[in-house]
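Example 287.
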Amino acid sequence: MDNSKIIEMIEESCDLPPVPIVASKVLKLVNDPNSTVAQLEEAIIGDSNMVSRIIGMANSAYYVRVHKVKTLRAAINVLGYKALANLVIAASTRQFYAKFGLVEKLLWEHSVGTAIAAAVLATEFKAIKSDEALVGGLLHDIGKTIINLSRPDEYREIAEYVYNGDGSYYEIEREKLGFAHNDVGSYLIQKWNFPVELGKAIYYHHSIDEIDPSVMDPFQVKYISVVHVANNFMRFLGIGYREPDDSVDIASLKSLKLLGIELSDEQIEQLAEKIKSVIEEEKGKFD
Ligand SMILES: [Fe+2]
Ligand SMILES: [Fe+2]
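Predicted structure in complex with fe (ii) ion:
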């Protein structure tokens, strides 16, 4: 099916939320060569929840630095504009999980877990920057949240099918709705004018087989791959699912090959342990 048909269906059946204001302002400032640190600070400082999330993320285990960042101004100076913009985008998605039933709780746990796993893997593999990995991981399933907000009864049913082991979200969404959460997420990112590479990382996390590294920008390939491996670690560990999925074979993932990484079973176990412990330590910073 061509893309315009899918977009038409998404527009018809989902209430797409307006762009998060602070993130949109920050992106504009970051892309304006004449903007100042004071302007950036002013755009963010009024949102105290966002400020504490940014400072929390800036002091995370996956950002190795000598001094602790204590203020928003220091975070802007230490992180730089681009990383700051990514953390602001990441921090602005919590609002879509305001209602907190079982479905939302699992989605949030899974998103935060994938974000942290992606940041850990990005550093371990020396692939991309941790802020890029973090925002890609946190938003990779944002489409699920948007469908759930628009059609809660239908989505609870879909979540139940998945919970009972009758298929994946991707498969059941396509069957019941005609599109899947990666279509919704990537379309939303485009509509919001958020970074194109983020939209692609979201889209391809369920279409990794379509990637041909000879025609795609190498950074984009790495970005997509890190998010894909992280998402699979969450399935492997059962984070955001009822239980771990024994069928996940991390070593054979195409995304791992695209990153040029080979892992033994022992290395996979070690990475899984590390990811689990960093998630335990850091997940509270996203609330
Ligand atoms: Fe997904
Ligand atoms: Fe996922």
